[in-house]
Specification:
The complex is a heterodimer. By secondary structure, chain A is mainly alpha-helical. Chain A has 3 helices and 3 strands, in the order ββαααβ. In chain A, 34% of the residues lie in helices and 8% in strands. Chain A has a two-stranded antiparallel sheet with strand order 1-2. The longest helix of chain A has 13 residues, at 45-57. The radius of gyration of chain B is 20 Å and the shape is globular. The relative contact order of chain B is 0.20. Chain B is built from 8 helices and 20 strands. A 6-stranded mixed beta sheet of chain B has the order 8-2-1-12-20-19. In chain B, strands 13, 15, 16, 17 and 18 form a 5-stranded antiparallel beta sheet that branches. Chain B is α/β, with parallel strands linked by helices. The chains are: A mainly alpha, B alpha/beta. The A-B interface holds A 8, 25, 27-28, 31-32, 34, 37-39, 41, 70-72, 75-79, 81-83, 86-87 and B 32-35, 39, 145-146, 149, 164, 223-224, 250-251, 271, 273, 276-277, 280-281, 283-285, 288, 290-299. Strand 3 of chain A pairs antiparallel with strand 18 (294-305) of chain B.
């Protein structure tokens, strides 16, 4: 078992299975497997999944659009956003 | 042949229901399926509305949700984890009682509970801030991603053709409808406009821009996963700016929403910083311990609001139907609306308790508004 997403324990086999079923859009793969949705925001898994997708579909890596990065780029404690006195 | 414009949950579920009745269906989506409102929704499903039409429709929809994984042969992750509304004043407690009475009349088992009972349901709740709760254990949540994919796969098995990245650029009519797209022209007998926040653009193509939908940017913030079961229901004190928290049924992160909205172009999904501060201010008042967990991401989608927050569902002109303007309720209503629309188109009648007059797309032109559908977030 080879892990591509360390936040959500997604394996290479799971990614390949969905691509074989016809899911070849990175946005759909991302949502069905929750890759890039964990605390690391896809730093590890997105490039790996793009390379798997390119290999299996014959597309060029540079032609596969990266998903949007979401705010905040690194996890931030809720209390950092809450004003003092609002406890 | 029926052409559906819009590949969100309403369009995709309706395509599946039509195919089940033997129709040939094609679905056009300008980006990827689910890219509009569906994949940005907070996952909640409830029958706790404040008017008969929405309560009956949602009671039926929840019955459909319960059997959906089995029917689609795909796990849509529906769970009946409930909705818990919380009152902060005596006036609100009285309003809750009136709503509960109406919901009970139509078979929805909502009941008034004490703050202590609420605390048992949501252990980290700041129960001292509230006087009572309205609790329906049959409300719940499902995965927007998996629900849409489940419907799409089931539709494909029945022969539905789904076209992603296919924008509709014009509609004409001779003896059939001609849908002009970036992938060429398609001739169909019937069109369904299921584009929600983009609904006016499509209606304008046939010069019937009569449904005054205004898209409002609605945002969400999500935390890292916490132990499951702590905040399972959707928890909302309406008086606190319609703020709510709900634990994601799939990964356990907490989704936080509040009614800070901006009228904007539905293609603009850029989140705003003021929202993060506003939503978390309320979230930690509801669940104080949330201040110690991490925010992992924020995103935005759009509510497609009509003047009365009720959708427009029905035949706009001969062989041209709409199911748009869901005002934040499209995901939860999809199973019932899709079945009702498909049965009405194919059989001329439906057993779904959908009040066609209430949701009549022409009501705005006549200056008739319905009681505003209860909205949160």
């Amino acid at each position: 078992m080879r892990i591509v997403c360390r936040c959500n324990d997604v394996t290479v086999e799971e990614v390949e299975k969905l691509i074989d079923e016809g899911v070849t859009d990175l946005e759909e793969l991302r949502r069905l497997l929750r890759i890039g949705m964990g605390p690391c925001q896809g730093r590890t898994c997105i490039p790996l999944v793009i390379s798997i997708l390119a290999r299996k579909t014959g597309r060029r890596v540079e032609d596969i659009e990266l998903p949007n990065a979401r705010f905040p780029t690194r996890p931030v404690r809720v209390e950092a956003f809450v004003e003092e006195g609002e406890k | 042949m029926i052409g559906i414009i819009g590949g969100g949950i309403i369009g995709v579920a309706t395509a599946y229901e039509l195919a089940k009745l033997g129709e040939d269906v094609i679905v056009f989506e300008k980006r990827y399926f689910g890219s509009g409102s569906t994949f940005r929704c907070a996952s909640g499903i409830r029958a706790q509305f404040t008017d008969e039409a929405n309560i009956k429709l949602m009671k039926y929809s929840i019955e459909k949700w319960k059997k959906l994984s089995e029917e689609l042969e795909y796990n849509v992750m529906f769970q009946q984890t409930g909705y818990l509304f919380l009152a902060t004043s005596e006036e609100e407690v009285e309003a809750f009682k009136r709503n509960i009475k109406l919901q009970n009349k139509f078979g929805v088992p909502t009941r008034l509970i004490s703050p202590e009972e609420a605390k048992e349901i949501v252990p980290p709740l700041n129960e001292n801030a509230f006087l009572a709760g309205a609790w329906n254990p049959e409300d719940g949540k499902a995965s927007p991603f998996h629900a849409l994919y489940g419907y799409k796969k089931a539709g494909e098995r029945l022969g539905v053709k789904f076209y992603p990245y296919t924008k509709v650029i014009g509609i004409e009519k001779d003896e059939k409808w001609i849908i002009k797209t970036t992938r060429g022209e398609f001739r169909v007998d019937i069109i369904i406009n299921a584009t929600n926040a983009w609904g006016r653009e499509i209606n304008a193509m046939i010069n019937l821009d009569v449904i005054p939908i205004r898209p409002f940017k609605h945002q969400l913030v999500k935390t890292e996963p916490i132990k499951k079961g702590q905040i399972e229901p959707l928890v909302c004190p309406p008086a606190w700016n319609d703020s709510y928290v709900i634990q994601d049924g799939e990964d356990g992160g907490v989704i936080c929403g509040t009614a800070l909205e901006y009228e904007s172009n539905p293609d603009d999904v850029t989140p705003t910083y003021d929202f993060v501060k506003e939503v978390l201010k309320w979230a930690v008042k509801i669940i104080p311990a949330l201040r110690h967990v991490h925010v992992v991401r924020q995103w935005a989608g759009h509510y497609a609001k009509t003047p009365d927050n009720n959708p427009a569902i029905g035949e706009l002109t001969e062989d041209f139907y709409v199911a748009i303007g869901f005002s934040g309720h499209g995901f939860m209503m999809a199973p019932a609306v899709a079945q009702a629309l498909a049965e009405r188109i194919v059989k001329g009648r439906t057993k779904v308790p959908l009040d066609w007059e209430w949701f009549d797309p022409w009501r705005f032109e006549r200056g008739e508004l319905r009681t505003s559908a209860f909205q949160i977030g």
